[in-house]
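Aim 2, interim progress. The first record below pairs a target sequence with its C-alpha cells.
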Amino acid sequence: MHTVIKAHSAAEFLTLIPALTGYTPTRSIALVAFRGSRTLGVLRVDLPPGDADAQSLASAAATFIGMVCRLPDADGVAPVVYTDGPLRADTPLPGAPLSADTGERRRGAVGARARIAHAELIDAVRRCADACGLTVRDALCVAVDGWASYLEPQLTHPLSALDAAATRAGLPPRLGPARGDQHSGAELPEVDPGERERVALALDDLQRLLDGLDAGVSAPSGEAGDDTPGDAGPEGRCDDEGSRDDDPGLFRAFAQATAAAVMTDPPQARAAARALGALCDIPGLFERALDTAPDALDTATAAALLLCLSRPPLRDVALSQWSFTLTKGVELLEAQVLWQDGEAFPAHLATHMVGEGPSPDLHRVRAALALVRHLSALAPAPWRCAPLTVAAWLSWALGRSTHASGYLALAHEIDPEYGLAEIVSTMVRSGHLPEWAFGRADTLRAHGLGE
C-alpha cells in the first residue's frame, strides 16, 4: 500500500526528500521527477566539480535531464542542490577570517543580490528541461546557512523553517527523520570474530576436499580408511538425478565422498563436509540462504556460499536466482553446464547483468544484499572480493550506485583486476542505470514509500 503525503510549500517539499530517498543528500543534486502533481521518484547525482566550466555544466545538465526523461510519464522535475558551502557566494561561513578594519566576517556584495550557489548548473538544468518539455516545478538549494529557491533568488530562508515544516508535513513515524547521507548504510555489519575464524578454517578444509575430488581422492589424506564409502568413484556419489560424472570441479562435489570426514575432528572439518554436501544442490543452497536471516547462517552454509561466489559461473547463477526465481537459477546452472560441454550460451540469460530486460524481484534483491554483506564481513580477505562485488551489483540494481562504489573500492583493494568488479565499476562511473530503474519508481524511492 502506498503512502501519499502532500507538500503545501517549498519548505514542506524539502522535508519530504529525505523521506523519498531514505537519507539526506550531501554535495548532491537531487532531481525529483513528477507526473502531474505526484512524484515518480528521486535521482541523486554528485554535484559537478566546483571548477567545472560552462560546457561541462551543460553536459552534466543534459545527462541529468536525460535520465529524468527516461522515466515513463515524467512531465516535470524539481532539482534540489545540497551543498556543504554557504547559500550565496558572498556569505562567509562561521570561522571565516575577520576583517582587520571592521572586525566583521569578510563578505562581498549584499547577500540578497548575490547569486545562489550552483546557480549556473541550475540555469543549465532549466534550459535542458525546457528543451525536453519538462516543467520545472521548483528549483531549490539547501546550504549550511539557509535555503532558497532559484525561482525566487531574492529570498533567503533559515534552516529552522525546515524543522517547522517537517512537523506540519506530518510524516508517518516509520518515515521519520532520515539519518545519514547517501553513503550511510553501506558499512559491513559486525560479525563474531570467532565465527569468522571458523568460516576461514572450514573454507580451507572445503577447498582441500574439492582438490581431492578433482584428483580422484575420496577424502582428505589420512582421514579415511580403505573401507569408507568415499572409495567409490565419482559415479553415484550423489542421489541427484542431475549429477554428472563429467561435470567440472564443483559440479562433481558429492556428499558421499566425504562420509568419513563427517566423523573427524576438529568441528570445522565436519563443517567442511556439510558444506560439500550442500553443493549437491546448488540452487537449493542459494534459495535456503535467501530465506535465512544472515546472522543465522551456520558455518557450513557460509563456507559453501563463499566458495560458490568465488567461482564466476556459480556466482552468476546466484545473482540470477536471487534477483528472480529458483527456476531462473536452475535454468542458468543447466546452461553453464552445457556451455562447459561446448554448447552455445543463451544470451538472454545474461542480459540482466548489464541492466537490460525485466525488473528483478526487488524484495529478493534486498534480501540477497543483506546476505552478501554478511558474507563479506565473514569472509577471509582472499575470499572477500566476490561477495563484495556481488553486493556492488545488487546495490546498483537497486539504484544505489553510491553504495556500489563503496563495495567496489573495497574489492579493488583486494584484486584490482577482478572481472565482474571492473564491469560494475564501468557502469557506475559512467552513470549507467538499469532499465528497470526507469520502468518502476520503487527503485527510485525509499523502500515502502509511495508518492
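The second target in this work package is listed in the same format:
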Amino acid sequence: MVARVVGTIPLPAEEWSQAITRVGSATGPIAWSWAAVRGQGNLQLFLLAITSARSADYVLLDYGDILIGREQLTPVAAAQRLRRGIAAQTPALEFTPPTSTIYPMWVTAEVEFRYALALPEWPHYYGNWSLPQVTGANPSGAQSLIKAGQPFYATLSAALGDILYGSPPNEVQSNLSPGILIRLPDLRGHFGRPRVNEGVVELPVIGGRRRLRKASVEVTWRDTPTESTWKRQAVAVPRSGLLELDTGGVPSELWALLWCDQEVVDRTGWSEATSAEVEIAGSPELRAERWIAEGESVQIEYKQELKDDSAKESFAGTVAAFANAAGGVILVGVADNSEVIGWDPPKAADLISNIVHGRLSAPVDISLQRVVVRGKPIWEVIVPTGDRQEQPYRCSGRVFVRALGTTRQATTAELRRLAAPTTSATLSYRRRRFR
C-alpha cells in the first residue's frame, strides 16, 4: 500500500528556476516576509516566506539579535529578488539561491486535513526550500521577543506565525530550520463540503477571482467497504456550481477531483481509512446506512441485541467509553459483520435508557431513534461527549475507553489523562462530534 498524506497531492520534482517562474506568473500582490539573525557580526537570513494573492503592510521589527520584516511586492519584482538572492533592501539582506531539487506539493482545500503552515480555503502550490544553517546564532521558536519600542511576542514562533505565515504558533516548529516557503493559491475555484441528500451526492464547486474555464469533476466511488470495483463518472461543472451525482445511497468511499484547463485544482471526498467525514442530509435511514457502510470504528459500534446481562454490560461500557471521549453512535440490531439483524422488543427505548442510567456512574444525555434499514428495525443510540466534571464515566465501577473499533478498560495513563483538569477528554482521533 502506498502511504499518502490526505490534504496534499505530490507534484513532480522542481528546480529553483521553476519556482521563480511560478512566482513571477502568480496572482498578485505578493506578501514578502523574512526573518534574520545577527551572528558573528553579520545579518543572516534564516526564513523567507512568499505568499501570492495576499496584500501586506510594511513591517520592520528589530529585537537586536533577531529582525523580522514584511513588505508587498508585485509577482515580477518578487521573481527578480529570488533570482538575484535579495531578501531585503533595507536592511541589506542577501542569500545564496538554492541549487537543490525539491518535491513540492499541491495542498487541497479538504477541510478535515490541515497541513502545517498551509493556507486556509484555497488550494495552493506549496514548496519548501532549504537554506544554509546560520553561523554564530541559534534562534529558537520558544524564545521571547522583548525590546522597548517593539511589539512584545511571548515566543518567536508566535511572531513568525503572525508576520510570516498567517498561522497559529503551534504550526511553527520550535526548532527552526532555515528555509524558503513558497505558497501560491489557485483562485480559480475549490470544492465546498460534500454531502449526501436522499441518495444523491452533492459536490459544490465554488468559483474564485479567476474564471473556471473548461472545468470538470471526475468522481470515483465504492458502495460498500468490501467492494474492489470502483464506479466512475466525469461531468462538466454546471453553471449553478452544484454537481449532483445519484449514487442511490451513501458510498462507503468517494473521491472527486476538480479539473480546470487540464490541471487538477482541488480534491474532496471521504473514506473510513482516512477518517474524512461527509454530511448526511435527509432521512435517519440514510444516516444509519452510512454508519453501517463505514463499519465499526472509534466512534461507531454495533450490538446485535441487548437480551442477556453480558450484552447489556457490554453496551453500557461502550456508552461510558464514548462519553469519556468524543462521543459516538451504537446501532442495536446490527451484527459485527455489518449484517442488519433487526432488534425492536416492546418498550425498547425504556430498556436502553434503564441500562444506561442503571449501570453508569453519572447521567449521559443519549438520543434514541428507531429506524428501518433494509426492511428491519434497528435503534440508533447517539452518545455525546460527557460532562467534563463527571469524567471519567464508569460502568459498574470500571472506566472504559475506545481503541479503534473496540471498547476496553482504561490504562493507568489514560485514567490520569481523563482525570487531569486541563486536559481534553477526547481520546478519539477523528473530528466527528456527536451531540
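Confidence is low (pLDDT under 50) at residues 1-5, 422-435. This observation will shape the mutagenesis plan for the next reporting period.
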